[in-house]
Specification:
Blueprint (H helix, E strand, L loop, with lengths): L3 H6 L3 E5 L4 H13 L5 E6 L4 H13 L5 H7 L3 H8 E5 L12 H10 L2 E4 L10 H21 L5 E5 L9 E4 L27 H22 L4 H14 L6 H10 L3 H21 L4 H16 L5 E6 L1 E3 L17 H8 L5 E3 L5 E2 L1 E3 H15 L5 E6 L7 E2 H14 L16 E3 L2 H25 L5 H25 L2 E4 L2 H9 L2 H6 L9 H16 L3
Parallel strand pairs: 1-2, 1-4, 2-3, 4-5, 5-7, 6-15, 7-12, 8-11, 9-14
Antiparallel strand pairs: 10-13
Amino acid sequence: MASNVLGFLKDKNILVTGSTGFLGKIFMEKILRIQPGIGCIYALLRAEDVESARNRFKKEVIRLELFKILREQHGDNFESFIFQKVVPVVGDVAVDHNLGIDEATREHLLEHLDAIVNNAASTVFDDRYDISLNVNTKGAKNMVEFAKRCRKLQILLHVSTAYVIGHGKGRIMEKPVKMGETIKAGNGPENEGGPPFLDIKAEFDLLEKTLADIHTDSSATTSTGQSSLQDTDTKRLKELGLERFVTLTSHLLIICIDVINLKIKIRFIHEHLNRARRFGWPNTYTFTKAMGDMLVENLRGNLPLVVVRPSIIESTLAEPFPGWMEGTRTMDTLIVAYGKGRLSSFLADPNLILDVIPADMVVNEMIVAMAAHASQNGLFIYHSASSIGNPLRSSVVTDAAYNYFWQHPCVDKDGNIVHVKPPLFLESMSSFRGYMYRRYKAPLQMLGLVDSVFCNIFRAHYTRLLRNYNFAIYLAELYEPYVFFQGRFDTTNAENLFRKISAEDRKSFNFDVKCIDWTHYLSEVHIPGVVKHVLK
């Protein structure tokens, strides 16, 4: 049976945002490799001009190992083939409803686009509120408004995250995020026992006011010096109800050269954490992505819209080859810290399920969903997740990490072998804090006292241990919502989609999580990929 998916892709013109991101690169590589008859991929990039965009695309995308199979297939004609099929476009989803694209290029796109893949996102959990809100929320709104003006568009695919649900329990269905609905119980006014209705416009108004306040205060502090800046920043953090970050904030301010820029970043970090948690989301990423989903789903009109919500995306399972990844993904921060000897305990219930999905499976699901729903007037939502179809226990991950680094230990900067120990599980935040105090904080306090008595002779050692301690606390608070997440993402829509495609397409675009052997994937594919691409 002929491939319906390849048939759909032939001669299609597709705008891809987030083209220099992890998922965007894998998406483009897959299409260029399996359907060289694609019309054109327009890759939206932030750049000064077209030449800068082209150079950035060369450096950040096609020169990567990810494209080695395409490079082998086309040999000396590789770059020529790429730029026959890919046109870098200067723009930015966060700018406006024209995406920052010049008029001539914009008119060409509005006339010729068949599909749009909105993959642009700020995926950093603790990014500044202004960056996250502009990219994840405003950018999503701008994209749907741009898509509605396209004259022959068949499909808009919006990549979100399964964690727009925030804190979830039980089976979490593939359904829309209701406009303005918050997660915490009681969506009425605060004086009626619940957080207020989520007013997205009010969030942008708050952002503008905060920006104005920050710039005003930054100007004022340039003449008063660093000390008053620290006092002001500490006071504001306390007013935001985030006292637990004050000590670390002050320490960072002391050692940072660019005090004003750091002040702005810290203020935004804590501002967004306060806003996100007030409405029930654990961090800025999921909060701003949820608001983006609300706007896209509410403003689409008659536009055919597919929303794909992946869980925790990790390295490729099979394509273009096993184990490719870029940057430190969610789970890998802990794996890297453990392998380097900076982390000996895991904040996790060993029997709790982690929802992990290989990146190439996400891309396959995206492509199949685009083809399946092209020109269908409707909203189609898919989870890309494994917690129901093929559950992965936390203990399987830690066992794989221990076995790997025991057999293939890391080497520290002094050339010493890092010997890992079997990880200790701390199954609640209270047990974690107690352990950290007994094991690290109390001895650190004693060391600090001795250091002050003996004229700072232990200062370097004390500083290194304090940095490791602060790092462990930071990781625990950042990942707590995920390591103790009790929900399971339903994939009924995704499973039905997979069953409906041809046998040839199921082989070429596999996203059946039941085929994953987690022990093999972690030990032979993923962790070696982390070592190769992250710990290189």
